[in-house]
Amino acid sequence: MSRALTTPVPSMVAGVDTHTDTHALAILTAQGGIVFTGVFAADEHGYANLINRINDTGNVGTVGVEGTNSYGAGLTRALKAAGYEVKEVLRPTRQVRRLQGKSDALDAVEAARTVLSNHGIAIA
Predict the structure, then answer these.
(1) Fewest CB atoms within 10 Å of the CB: 37, 58, 65, 119?
(2) What is the largest CA-CA distance in the chain?
(3) Helix (H) and strand (E) counts in the chain
(4) How many angstroms separate the CA atoms of 87 and 64, rounded?
(5) Which pLDDT value is given to residue 8?
(6) Domains, the chain
């Protein structure tokens, strides 16, 4: 007799590029397709809005956050309290950022893709 799964397998990941005043969020499918990008305030109200967006978008399992012990510390605490697995995403080198272009949305997408690749991450 097979046992049914009670918890759905996560089908998406999220990435966050953190800054002093704002955090950029990207949500990707497990195959790397971009589902959502947006910017939220770096305060408790913004954290709640960001988490609500993740909840509303779908079944996100892991959130990759740049700067979990600096600009992203408050968001990391809020995400963990909401039940998300949070991974520290190491910032790419300046050379890589220059070659790929620079924007907060692109950095958030790259953070999510780093989670998907399981390279360049650490436990937050």
Answers:
(1) 119
(2) 55
(3) 4, 6
(4) 5
(5) 57
(6) 12-123 (3.30.420.40)
